[in-house]
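Trying the structure run again after the queue cleared.
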Amino acid sequence: MARPFRIPPRAWVLTIAAVATGSVFQAGPALSAASGPFLAHQALYELNLVKSRGSNAINGARGRILYNFSGSACEGYTSEFRQVSELDSGEGKLTLSDLRSTSWEDAAGKSYRFKIDTRMNDTESAPVDGVAERTGDHITVKLKQPVAKTFNLEGKIVFPTEQIQLIIAAAREGKSVLELMVYDGSDNGEKVYNTLSVIGQPIPGTKTIASPDPSTANDQMKSLTRWPVTVSYYDRDAKAKDGEQTPVYAMSFELFENGVSRALMLDYNDFVISGAMGKFDVRDSKPCK
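Done. Tokens:
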């Protein structure tokens, strides 16, 4: 997908809680040319528990994510995301979560619109709905929900598609580490994350794949280079203990040069989830004139 594959922690963290009771970067033509066009596509990911650890250990977790990505550098990028997941804490305690998210991002990184709805069992949480606009050296966020408010974000903050553009650009340049501050509207719409991306050596499309999936079998994807990437997300407002800060979560995936992600692994500290691609369809898109 044309952004780091990011399950907003809101869905999983709420589930655990219920069970436990310089200058701002602006993406321009040079970056678009360097990264190449993103692929409009739909992908289905199957989620399964890999391991459980810590004080909030769980017996099982499973679910699905359906992801649609479309758009272009001319019209901006639209993402539609739905995650349905079930968490088993043992003794017959099951919690079902249903998270839906839609967003649109201007290709120049100047505007970002988002809406996130979450349902836990039969209870709906307050939706998060807003828009973020980049003006000069800051970003102004206008929230409609969960409460109407306007505030500014300072610093070199990027939006999700900007983030994936920069990771691909860094990978092409042979860089192995990239630090970014990211705003995507998750949680209550006021959270900014510090992220650390670690990029591995490029994997050529000609290399044999141990665990193929529909993306690697697709004719448009077979010749593309991809990179193993791990992105760790840190709470920008949290204070480090003993000089180190534990990430809120981390995710690993293989990132194709057209923005598609496969072989997902999501580490939420107390448990780790794998996301295997079950279906993959390339969608029609209008080229820029």
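The longest helix spans residues 160-172. Worth checking whether this holds up in the mutant runs.
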